[in-house]
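Weekly structure sync, notes
Attendees: PL (lead), two postdocs, one rotation student
Agenda item 3: pending single-chain targets
PL asked that the sequence for the first pending target be pasted directly into the notes so everyone works from the same version. It is reproduced below exactly as submitted, 106 residues in total.
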Amino acid sequence: MKRSRIGELWVVAVVFAIVLLLLMIFVLQNGQRAEVTFLGAHAALPVGVALLLAAIIGVLLVALPGTARIVQLRMRQRRRATVAPGSPAPGPTASPTPGAATHREG
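Predicted structure, written out during the meeting:
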């Protein structure tokens, strides 16, 4: 049976709802207060919330360099696509290999 995009979206939405439910249960079961200090800022948060915030910050720290790299590669690809077909691509040119024989007509 062939899957539709709406069907796939439904599956993703259900999985997302289950993950959110599990996260909510985690936060509610870990309600003990914890003192958190970071660069001079102090806060008293429930343990579940503190761990969840730490996980979110960790994901962002991983995602930001990846996103920057994807943007960089897309920009490079656009530059290559805008170069005229007959003109040489920007970048280093090929140099003749040492020791290669040259042919001269005389």
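Discussion points:
- Residues 98 and 104 are 17 Å apart (CA to CA).
- The chain has two helices and two strands.
Action: rotation student to compare against the earlier draft before next sync.
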